[in-house]
Structures are given as C-alpha cells and as structure tokens.
Amino acid sequence: MAVIKANSEDVKLLARLMRAEAEGDGDQGMLLVGNVGVNRVLADCLDFGNIRDMNRMVFQNPGGFESTQKGYFYQRARQSEIRLAQRVINGERFWPASNSLWFFRPVGDCPATWYNQPNTGRFKAHCFFSPTGEDCPDVY
Predict the structure, then answer these.
(1) Integer distance in angstroms from the first to the last C-alpha of the chain?
(2) Is the pTM of this model over 0.85?
(3) Is 47 within 8 Å of 26 (Cβ atoms)?
(4) Which residue in 85, 113, 84 sits closest to 101, CA to CA?
C-alpha cells in the first residue's frame, strides 16, 4: 500500500528523478534518492512544508533537484526505474536515506552536517542527511 498518493504519472516522474540523480550508483542508489523524494512529500516541516505531491517535490524551487535542469531528466522512464519508484512509494525504506530529506554528491568526504542536519551515512557517491524526529516527525 502506498505511503503517499501517487498516480502512474507520479510514479514515472519519480522514476525519472531517481535515474537522473543516481543512475551511476545503481539500483540501490536510485532507491535511496527515491526515499528522499517520498520523505519530502511526507514531511510537513523545514523546507518542505508546502510539498504535498510528487510534482511539487520534484520541481521545488528553490531547494529542488539540479537534475530537473538537465535534458537527461526529461527522457522517458524505463520499466526497471518505474518498478524501483513504486517500491519506495509503497513504503520501502533504505539506510542511510530511510528518514533523509537531503543528499548531495561531495568532492571529498561527507560533512558532519548539511543545512544544519546530521549526516546519516554515505552510499557510493552520495551523502545523506536526516532531520531529527523532533523537527520532522512525519518522516519517522
């Protein structure tokens, strides 16, 4: 059962985002990016108070995803990516992005915090950052 409201176009949109942001990190990396996206829709806190649907989450400005400014993002989602997107929409969570609202790809090591949020871990090229349960209970 879905943890956020999503129609078939929403699933494809998330799939495109996951591929564009983390294809180089494989399926697991794309699932982690998907967790961040779903968490942003769930969260009613910090920078994400008005993000209640997939479209607003993907195209949030400022504070959204760089990949939406690149042509690769606008290519059609593949079935394999759609299946991954559906998994995170259905509630599968993966560490270190289980409760994360942010990630980025640093040149070096992951910083201890980003936007004042603690680092929860790294997977391949990306570092993930999660709010506290006190700041954002809806992502826990």
Answers:
(1) 17
(2) yes
(3) no
(4) 113
Contact 127, 114 (CB under 8 A): yes
What confidence tens digit (pLDDT) does each residue in 24-57 have? 999 999 999 999 999 999 999 999 998 999 999 9
Question: At CA 28, angle to CA 38 and CA 71, rounded to 5?
Answer: 70
Name beta bridge partners: 103.
128
Spell out the long-range contacts of 1-8 with Cβ–Cβ below 8 A and sequence spacing 24 or more. Answer: 1/90, 1/91, 2/89, 2/90, 2/91, 3/38, 3/42, 3/89, 3/90, 3/91, 4/38, 4/41, 4/42, 4/54, 4/89, 5/53, 6/54, 6/89
Q: If phi over 0 gives left and psi between -120 and 50 gives alpha, with beta otherwise, what is residue 10?
A: alpha
| DSSP H or E run through 114 | strand 113-114
Helical segments of the chain, H only: 8-22, 26-42, 54-58, 79-89
Residue 114, token pair as written in the block: 């980003």
